[in-house]
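USER:
Make up one protein:

ASSISTANT:
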Amino acid sequence: MDDNLSLKAFVVLMKSSKTLQERIKQDIQSYGMKTSEFAILEALFHKGRQTVRQISEAVLINTGSITYVIDKLETKGFLEREHCTEDRRAVFIQITDKGTKLMNEIFPKHQQVIEDLFEGVSKEDLKTVIETLKKVGHRA
């Protein structure tokens, strides 16, 4: 039976991941946003001005798709582009005051949804999950 523990852990991880992703998607949609829009705004909100490449790496969206989402968010006034004076090929993306105001309003609610999902799980167990997933991720 112990021989199947890795397989069982994998299945449980994948099922719980799918369930968590669906719940987070519902939460983000309740703010009238798509997951990709929220992810980009959240990255800029917490990390400040970034290049398209940096955002793409942070939110795991390919650069082709990210340009479309950035265009939409810029049209809504949530972010703006700033061309780099040293390298004309580089473009920085930064959150606007309107985008910051939105994230100040919705991010605490979003964070609470995540906190609620892990209610009843001890800090020690959470630390164990984090460390275990890091090990698996590095091994893969």
Remarks:
- Residues 7 and 13 are 10 Å apart (CA to CA).
